[in-house]
Write a structure and sequence with these properties.
Number of helices: 10
Number of strands: 0
Order of helices and strands: HHHHHHHHHH
Helix content: over 70%
Structural class: mainly alpha
Largest sheet: none
């Protein structure tokens, strides 16, 4: 007996809700403090149903990383529609600054997750989190390359490091205005590159 289309659709919806909830709850609480029940509650899915879609908490962490990947792809795809690479970079900085309250409260979603996962001995999920950050670095490098700047790879690392640093400091000091001031400095740096 096969599942009906409606049953498959409801199942896919539950899986999506659980993935989105995992991304949010893990960002807000961290991996170690988050339980499967926390994610089930946030997704409005019975706890017992979670195991049908995700066998372990690590599977939910992977789902969260997939959510971060999809979100980053959505953002960069939208930015790629802008005609000028410098404007793409500056628009991304503006988006980061717009999220300053979230950054001050929880830090960067992927950066904090990568830092927490790096403390584990298994060395698997931290590399997967690093791949999401690598996607951002690679996208930024393409922008600097499109600007015709030498050292595009170094500029990309500087750009992403600035974001991670301002997110970390904003979170550690509980000061969203760090994102504002450092975002302005990052934008001025982008404007200075010729």
């Amino acid at each position: 007996m096969t599942d009906s289309p409606g049953t498959r659709r409801r199942g896919a919806d539950k899986r999506r809700r659980l993935s989105a909830a995992a991304a949010q709850v893990l960002h807000h609480q961290g991996v170690e403090r988050t339980t499967i029940a926390d994610i089930a509650h946030a997704a409005d899915v019975p706890v017992g149903n979670v195991y049908y879609y995700f066998k372990t908490k690590d599977d939910l962490v992977r789902a969260a990383l997939s959510e971060h990947t999809a979100r980053l792809e959505e953002i960069t795809d939208g930015l790629d529609r802008l005609p000028d690479p410098r404007e793409r970079l500056k628009t991304l900085v503006a988006a980061w600054v717009e999220q300053r309250e979230v950054a001050a409260r929880y830090g960067c979603p992927t950066g904090t997750l990568a830092a927490e996962l790096d403390k584990r001995a298994d060395g698997v999920l931290d590399r997967e989190a690093g791949e999401v950050i690598r996607m951002l670095v690679d996208w930024a490098e393409r922008q600097f390359r499109a600007l015709g700047l030498p050292g595009a790879a170094d500029h990309a690392i500087t750009f992403v490091a600035a974001y991670q640093g301002m997110s970390l400091l904003s979170n550690a000091l509980h000061d969203p205005e760090i994102m504002t001031s450092q975002g302005a400095a990052l934008t001025a740096w982008l404007d200075s590159l010729t």
